[in-house]
Amino acid sequence: MFKGKPTRVIITGEAKEEFHELNRIVGQEIAGGITRSDHQTLLNSIKQKIELLKANPEYGIHIPRDRIPKEYIIEYGVNNLWKADLSGAWRMIYTIRGSKVEIISLILDILSHRDYEKKFRYRNS
């Protein structure tokens, strides 16, 4: 519950693909006897942030409106955007949607620091 409303977290788009691929890799690692890896640390970090978002959708860092990439506005109708820092300098990008009934944190992207900088125009390369 957040502000008296139930919360949900939904992973969509590229984030969903990234999350499924990461789960696949971690599953293979565990089956192969690998118990610690960067992939496993990142997956655990994502799962931890999802739990934090369920408790408080405003957990992350609010991204100013003028920094929202147009692709998010066009593809998802985003008018607010948030960032949660993950392990290994990865970032989880999400938007918050609400109604009188519930609040939804919609995870749009899971990005490396380099890809985050490119997408948000912090560097040119």
Describe this structure in words.
The protein has helices at about 15-30, 40-55, 70-75, 115-120, and strands at about 5-10, 60-65, 80-85, 90-100, 105-110. With about 120 residues, the protein is of the alpha+beta class. The protein has one domain: 2-Layer Sandwich (YaeB-like fold), CATH 3.30.2310.20. The chain has a 5-stranded mixed β-sheet with strand order 1-5-4-3-2. Helix 1 (about 15-30) packs across helix 2. The termini are far apart. The model has no long low-confidence stretch (mean pLDDT about 95).
Hey, roughly how much beta strand do the residues contain? 15-25%
Helix/strand-derived class? alpha+beta
CATH topology: YaeB-like fold
Number of individual domains: 1
What is the global morphology?
globular
Strand order of the largest sheet: 1-5-4-3-2
Assembly annotation: single chain
Can you tell me the CATH architecture? 2-Layer Sandwich
Number of helices: 4
Q: What is the N-to-C succession of helices and strands?
A: EHHEHEEEH
Q: Could you estimate the helical fraction of the residues in percent? A: 40-55%
Name the average pLDDT. Answer: 94
Sheet having the most strands? 5 strands, mixed
According to DSSP, the number of beta strands is: 5
What distance separates the N and C termini? Answer: 41 Å
CATH superfamily: RelE-like
SSE map:
Blueprint: E1 7-11, H1 13-31, H2 38-55, E2 61-63, H3 70-76, E3 81-85, E4 91-98, E5 103-111, H4 113-119
Parallel strand pairs: 1-5
Antiparallel strand pairs: 2-3, 3-4, 4-5
Helix pairs in contact: 1-2
